[in-house]
Amino acid sequence: xxxxxxxxxxxxxxxxxxxxxxxxxxxxxxxxxxxxxxxxxxxxxxxxxxxxxxxxxxxxxxxxxxxxxxxxxxxxxxxxxxxxxxxxxxxxxxxxxxxxxxxxxxxxxxxxxxxxxxxxxxxxxxxxxxxxxxxxxxxxxxxxxxxxxxxxxxxxxxxxxxxxxxxxxxxxxxxxxxxxxxxxxxxxxxxxxxxxxxxxxxxxxxxxxxxxxxxxxxxxxxxxxxxxxxxxxxxxxxxxxxxxxxxxxxxxxxxxxxxxxxxxxxxxxxxxxxxxxxxxxxxxxxxxxxxxxxxxxxxxxxxxxxxxxxxxxxxxxxxx
Length: 320
What we know:
Elements: E1 4-5, H1 20-25, E2 44-46, E3 54-56, E4 67-72, E5 83-93, E6 99-102, E7 111-115, H2 123-127, E8 135-140, H3 142-146, E9 162-171, E10 179-180, E11 189-192, E12 198-201, E13 212-218, E14 229-238, E15 244-247, E16 255-258, H4 266-272, E17 280-285, E18 305-315
Antiparallel strand pairs: 1-11, 2-3, 4-8, 5-6, 5-7, 5-9, 8-9, 10-13, 11-12, 13-17, 14-15, 14-16, 14-18, 17-18
């Protein structure tokens, strides 16, 4: 994979106005913007955003292509693709009008999912260009929805199209976006692929004996606190060998975790407590704040760890 030095990476994603909103606005379009259509235009909804809507449409509702209708528009950042989103939803058989699935609209089972190019059920295209805080109707042709095979459990016939009504509650950053910071002498050098995935070049020197935290890209969002649910991309490396032992990037989606004092190694918690959304940070974690003198899978006992973490979003413990 080609890599680009941090000093030249994301230059197009560093706007002069240092705000999280402008950072979002600098993101390139990954998936083609949604398309409206005369069939989806027949859908209407009542009820406040974030509460279960009342949906009205004449049946059967037919389409041969994916159609999106914005029922009510939010004011948050725009989804451009290659991002994690969180949403509430109601799903209908577009032929019969019967609802066959829905979330609870209380935050307890809101769906967090990563949408990008190449997915058969092309929600990336259906949502691309939609703002956070919007309610949208997405009409999905049968071949895309269920391969034209139907779903007898939910009373869906092979020719039935599906209708999803989605409340787009949250759009997360795809990678760190902000102001690049100078790298520090004696610390690993971070290199990034064009997607933002990091690699490291570890110096041929002894690892620091104490915890170190370096900001590589300075974001402009809120600060993370213990108890928050954080959305991250991360990669972990072993100082002594430079070998990567874990990475969310290789799993093709960010992770979402509640940050707790006991849920992670001490150094990882220390790195994230107070981290700023939009930032990329590098934490050097000595064994005393990592896995200590015990082997941990592919990590040898006594290893100093290097984590590169992109902070993509944060939700406070008191909110859904």
